[in-house]
Amino acid sequence: MASKYIDFDDPSNRDTYVGRTADPAWVDLYSRLVRPGGRRIADVGCGGGIYTKAIAYLKPAWVLGIDSSELSLESARKYCAGAPNVRFLRTDAEALAVPDNDFDNVVERALIHHFASLDKNFHEVFRVLRPDGTLWLQDRTLDDVLQPPSEEHIRGFYLSFDERLRNTEIERRRRGEDIVRALRSAGFRDVSSDKLRELRKIFYSPEELREEILTRRGRSILHGLDDDQLERLADFVLRQITTWPVRERDTWTVWVARK
């Protein structure tokens, strides 16, 4: 599965999704809703392994990080070195090279907005889950990303700066009801949803935020801008922020669906 927004195998994007840890709020919600202890877990679209590592310390039987990008998996292996019971596999999220009924839980975080259609991936996840297994699905809906910009919702400034970025978000984000409909069509039952305000990063100075924008670190949406446009975006965002440090938080929707 290739993204139309970012080339994850471009060496210039090496380690772009590494360098932070999972927010304790994420760990708490995942632990309560999934209860991963002793379970066989797949982290599909694991990227640099941030959440693979977090899951590994929740005492699953083991966790398998899956990604289609070898460069991302290299970063993940390095980041998760020393974490217990972690394995990695390169395979496509829409054609998983794993057996039927192999996992108790599948995690897909910040993945589905890269798909043109949800059907292939959801049917594959349903296939590889054990009976009564669960899918943890986490992404931003249209409502999540189109919130007014603020010092916590920095992404909102991007969308107000450039209409193309706003259109990109509108194109790749889905409404919650459409995601639930696709899950049920794939065979899932007992679909529930929660909102999660997840601390993404603390920026202690304007220079830190500027560097993050200019390097596009962890921000696939910014790959639609060239370097000059990024400079202007950084100037625009920093004019909006008056108080430091800045705690950037992302609003996510989480669905837990049972096979």
How would you describe this protein?
The structure is a single chain. The chain has a seven-stranded mixed sheet with strand order 3-2-1-4-5-7-6. The relative contact order is 0.15. It is 36% helix and 24% strand. The model has no long low-confidence stretch (mean pLDDT 92). The chain is built from ten helices and seven strands. It has a domain of 172 residues: Rossmann fold, CATH 3.40.50. The chain starts with 23 loop residues before the first helix and ends with a strand. With 259 residues, the protein is α/β, with parallel strands linked by helices.
Short description:
The protein is of the alpha/beta class and 259 residues long.
